[in-house]
Amino acid sequence: MEDHWNGFTVRTIAMSYRPRIISRAVKWNSCDYHIILNTDGSYKKSIGKAGAGGIVRKRNGDTIMAFANPLQFSTNNFSEARTVLDGIQ
Fold first, then answer.
1. The CATH number of the domain where 67 resides is what?
2. For the chain, how many helices (H) and strands (E)?
3. What range does the domain containing 80 cover?
4. Which of 24, 51, 74, 86 maximizes the CB count within 10 A of its CB?
């Protein structure tokens, strides 16, 4: 018998899926560097929008600056790379 996915199987799995929500406390961990750059970029193909954002912190976690920028004509990888460039400029 050939094992394949059909509409009924996919629908049955999707209807019975219940995500498990886990919450965790997140805290700043100090490090050996003087400043830290945390970045994230994203692209949503369905609406053709992309964005880049980040935060620069001191060693103790104090914020130096934060930024967020819209991006044009992008992919997810481009958004991630552009965010790092924006952060170090």
1. 3.30.420.10
2. 2, 3
3. 28-88
4. 74
Residue 1 has pLDDT above 50, yes or no: no
79, 50 Cβ separation under 8 angstroms: yes
Q: Is residue 44 part of a domain?
A: yes
The pLDDT tens digits of the residues spanning 13-67 come to: 777 878 788 888 877 777 777 888 888 888 888 888 888 899 998 888 899 999 8
pLDDT of residue 66: 93
| Residue 63 resides in a domain | yes
What is the reported pLDDT for 13? 77
What does the alpha-carbon distance between residue 17 and residue 10 come to, in Å, rounded to a whole number? Answer: 11
Is 5 within a domain? no
Q: Name the domain count of the chain.
A: 1
Give, for 53, the enclosing helix (H) or strand (E): strand 49-58
Token pair recorded at residue 83: 């965010």
Close Cβ partners of 60 (under 8 Å, ≥ 6 residues apart)? 30
Which residue type, as a one-letter code, is found at position 35?
Answer: I
